[in-house]
Write a structure and sequence with these properties.
This protein is an alpha/beta fold and 138 residues long. The protein has a single domain (2-127), classed as 5'-nuclease (Rossmann fold, 3-Layer(aba) Sandwich). It has seven helices and four strands. Strands 3-2-1-4 form a four-stranded parallel β-sheet. Helix 1 crosses helix 2 (23-33) and helix 5 crosses helix 6 (97-108). It starts with a strand and ends in an 11-residue tail after the last helix.
C-alpha cells in the first residue's frame, strides 16, 4: 500500500497550471489507473481542506480525496507518533506532530509514503519509515 502525503496531493490537485499537469499529477494518475493500493491518512485530508474558503471547491476537493480512500488514525497510531517524535528529537531530527502521525500510520500499515517533503527523508531512518519513490516508467 502507498499512503499519499499532503505535498503530493497538493501538487497534483493544483488548479492553475499553464504548462500542463505536473510530473506528480501524471504519476498519481498512473497509480489510480493501474489500481495500485493507495490511501490518504485522515490528517492529510484535514490539511488539504483547511483554508479552502469556497464551499463548492471544498466539497469537490473532499470528494476527490475521499475517492482515494481515507485511513483514520487509531490510538496506536497516536502513541507510535509520540514515540517517533521523541526518537527524532533525541537524534536532532525536526519532526512535526502531524508528520509523526503520518509516519506512524505508514509504519503500522507496512505501507510506503509517497511524499515530496524532505523532512520525511530525514525521519525515515529514525522511524523505520519506508518511502515511495516513483521511477520514470511507473
Amino acid at each position: 500500500m502507498i499512503l499519499l502525503d499532503t505535498s503530493v496531493l497538493s501538487e497534483a490537485f493544483r488548479r492553475h497550471r499553464r504548462e500542463g499537469p505536473s510530473a506528480t499529477a501524471i504519476h498519481l494518475t498512473r497509480l489510480i489507473r493501474n489500481r495500485v493500493d493507495k490511501a490518504v491518512p485522515g490528517i492529510v485530508l484535514q490539511e488539504l481542506l483547511t483554508g479552502v474558503p469556497d464551499p463548492e471547491r471544498f466539497d469537490a476537493l473532499r470528494k476527490d480525496i475521499e475517492a482515494l480512500g481515507i485511513i483514520p488514525a487509531t490510538g496506536e497510531d497516536h502513541a507510535l507518533a509520540a514515540q517517533f517524535s521523541t526518537r527524532c528529537r533525541a537524534r536532532g531530527v525536526a519532526a512535526t506532530a502531524v508528520d509523526c502521525l503520518i509516519a506512524a500510520q505508514t509504519v503500522r500499515l507496512h505501507a510506503r509514503l509517497y511524499t515530496l517533503d524532505r523532512d520525511f527523508a530525514r525521519m525515515a531512518p529514525v522511524c523505520d519509515l519506508s518511502l515511495y519513490r516513483p521511477g520514470p516508467a511507473q
